């Protein structure tokens, strides 16, 4: 009996010591303590695969996949010097091999950057406009909000099929009017790199503007309405209210929304594969998928470079928004 009592006393004593130790932690130390499980999980699901990818990028597989050869930075050197271009699908290159429009649109890096910049820019502007409208009080607002969400809820495969059919040479109806405006090639539209890139950007804007609108709307809803009452009493116009109250207060929300969308846009693959093909519209993710089964080292090198670019974009946006933005 005394032995059991002693064991229980030691357990209680250890638990009390831990509780007292936690109580003496500062707020910052306690916050980091709570974040430890998140860091561990992040290391398992994100950091380890990234390190494993970097490790694979340092090797080259034999033709029969029976052995590997350590090449160090060889895969990266060949990638940036164009030596890997012959292993990429179609006429795809990693970096542009010239300054012509054709060379630029054959570069997976250039196409990915163009897609990310243009789509995120227009999604942010359209999403901001939608959010400003939905923030107003009018009849049927709930139904309009529900309708705006519909494109975002459409799966990528269905979205791609919709735009594929709209611009298909046999059944499509949007190619002729847009071709008359000079925006698309009049024939073989989905196999023309410039036209297919334009269509894919439009498809992404159509789908993801709702995502931006919802995030920005959440920021608008958090603004104290009393600020607008004070501004009205002071004689501020609608534009002055937006410039001095609305925009500064939702800017951190816009920064987070742009951050999320930029990361996703840099990994574009599904919409390209469903609307056109990776040989027509190259992207970094397309290159990773196309080379994975035959040249694992090349695929890993491209994937790691893509991750590094995404990391640089994320850090740049965080620095631009400031540490309090996220």
Automatic annotation (TrEMBL):
Identify the keywords attached in UniProt to this record, alphabetized: Cell membrane, Membrane, Transmembrane, Transmembrane helix, Transport
Determine if Transferase is one of this entry's keywords: no
Q: Which domain of life is it from?
A: Archaea
- UniProt KW Repeat keyword: no
Q: How does it sit in the membrane?
A: Multi-pass membrane protein
Q: Which family does it belong to?
A: Belongs to the binding-protein-dependent transport system permease family.
TM stretches of this protein: 30-51, 108-134, 146-167, 198-223, 244-263, 269-293, 300-320
Q: Which terms under GO biological process does the entry name? A: transmembrane transport
What's in the GO CC field?
plasma membrane
Q: Which PANTHER family match?
A: BLR7065 PROTEIN, SPERMIDINE_PUTRESCINE TRANSPORT SYSTEM PERMEASE PROTEIN
Domain ABC transmembrane type-1 as annotated: residue spans = 109-319
State its location(s): Cell membrane
Protein name, UniProt field: Sugar ABC transporter permease
